[in-house]
Structures are given as C-alpha cells and as structure tokens.
Design brief:
With 351 residues, this protein is α/β, with parallel strands linked by helices. The protein has 13 helices and 17 strands. Bound molecules: iron/sulfur cluster. The site of iron/sulfur cluster has 11 residues, from loops.
Amino acid sequence: MAFSHNIYMHVPFCMSKCNYCAFYSTACSNPDWEKYANDICSELKFWSRKLGKVNVPTVFFGGGTPSLMPVNVFEQIMNCVRECFCIKENCEITLESNPGTIDKDKLSEFVSMGINRLSVGVQSLNDTELKFLGRRHNVKQALNLLTLAQNMNLRISADFIYGLPNQNVQSVIDLCNDINKLELKHVSLYELTIEKNTPFGKMNLKMPDNETMADMYLAISDNLSLPRYEVSNYAKPGCECRHNQNIWDGEPYIGIGRGAAGRVFIDNVWYEQNGANELFEPISNEMRAVEKILTGMRTMRGVKLTDDVKNQINFDWVDLHKDLVELNSEYLHTTTRGLLVLDDIITDLIK
Ligand code: SF4
C-alpha cells in the first residue's frame, strides 16, 4: 500500500542575511533560478519513481525566501509536483514570504497556481526592532502583505520574534496585544536565540536572563488571544498548519532541495533522506518511534500512544511526574510547567 507523503521544498535564497539567521540560505539577489527549478524537478521525479504517484496532503515552500521565486519558476515546479504526485483539491500549499518581495499581482499568480496558505515573516511591529534584526522591510509593508492575503481569502500565518535585548515581560504583553488587534488565525512566536556565526553571535548582546525568558513565554499564553498548539505556534482551532502538524504527528514527508531533510516510508521501512539521494538510509522502527515522541511532545495534543511509541516510553517516570506530563487514553502530552523543561522531559521520558 502506498502511503501519503507531505512535501517540504526548500528555497535557499534571500535578498540579504538577517542578523540572527542560522537557516540554510544564501544572500543572493540574482540566483540561477533555471538551474534551481531543474534540480527541484529532477528530485521530485526521483521520489515519484521511488514512491509511485502517492497522495500528497500538504506542500510547504520554506526558506530562505520562497516568495522571491519568479512566477515562471514557481509554475514549472508546481506543474512538476502535479505530474509526479496526486494533489487533491484540499491539499494545503503554503508559501513562506517576506514583506517587500511579493506584490498583489505576483501573489495572485501564485494563488492561481495553487498556493492557499501564506506565511508572512513579520517578526516585529516596531520599525527600530526590524532594523536591529536586519530585516529589509518595515511594519507598513508587513501589514500591507497581511491585508493583501486577507483580501484573497488565503489562510494566513505571521511569524514574530520576542526576547530581544532590553525587552522585558511587558514588551511581550504589548506585542501580544498588538498581534491580537490584527485578528490573525495563526501566529508563530519564536524566542530570539543567538547562534554562533551570525552577526548577533559576534556582538556580545545583553540578552534577557533565562528566568525573564520563561516569564515572557508564560505571558504569551496569558495575553495572546489564540491558543498554543505547539511550543511556538498558536492558532484558532481548525486553523493549525496541517503540514507541520502532520510532521509532528510522525507522518512521512519528503524533503526537496539542498538542506531539506525528510522521512520517507517505503515497503514498511522508514528512510532518512535529504534532497534527491544525497542521503537515503533506512532507520529502525524504534528510532522512528523516538522521533515521533520528540516531535509529538512539542504539540499540546501530545504524542499518540501507538504500540511502537509505547514501547519507547518509561511509564514509571510518567507516573512519578504528573506535574510535567499528562496521559489521556490516546495521547501523552506536557503540562504548561512541563513545556518550560521540555528537553529534560524528553531525555527522562524515553527508555
Ligand atoms: S529572510 Fe529568513 S531565511 Fe532569509 S536571512 Fe532572514 S531569517 Fe534567514
């Protein structure tokens, strides 16, 4: 039986690098888009030969800055996706975008080719902060893009960053109140982490201490009008990102493009893969079950207690830590307190 596979497609180009960014992307104002599209299409064909024309419930164009893609490049890739796989009408097709890289005409062309969900990198609602982060756009451009997408009836998500130097709990409460006014149905709020080999990594910034960061995190759930459904993601029920939810639930997915990792499932064997066939190695069912616990426990619903998952869990530890994790008949999930020490929980939880 052929299993559905979600597709993650990486677009590794940006206009310039943001000061905090450690994602796989290069600053390039004029990439070789023809080569990019041809490489992506040959990867898609490779996986279609391996898996057959399987059903694809979600496609996610992530980056980098996918909204930089010229319309004809996007068209070539989408045509290839449709040739290679079974894309039903209800397939969720997400494009990550940066304000200032996509206008009304380009967005409507992308929509006519299948995009039905737009993720917008807003990051801050303060122009000084945007400059500090090294973003190329201002607040007005971000709000304009959200309005454009709202007018096109797209499902929308907006990304924000909190925990900047000099921010305190009140800054996060203010941010949540401002976000609430936008009436979005999905937002992601990420804590600013300083990575080596980024401009911020070399700047010796005075970051909020761990206790303040934890209070900021708790302040989000108290002040944002959307409920948390994953560590950093908040949505009106029914408006969650299906692509990410599927992956966190442990469904198979193909990673297309350099730097994109996937987990494919062929003839009852799980494989770790990367790009076309740079990496294609079987992984044991036990290992895959552990991965499901790692991702499932990040979600508020938790990890589904299938037999393979149950075999990896230390239920004695679960019984002794009801303040950190909770069991219901089908799922094991963290409590709010547990969320703050998620990494430690995972280490202790797995046998
Ligand atoms: S736009 Fe996104 S991927 Fe590109 S440099 Fe900025 S944070 Fe990184």
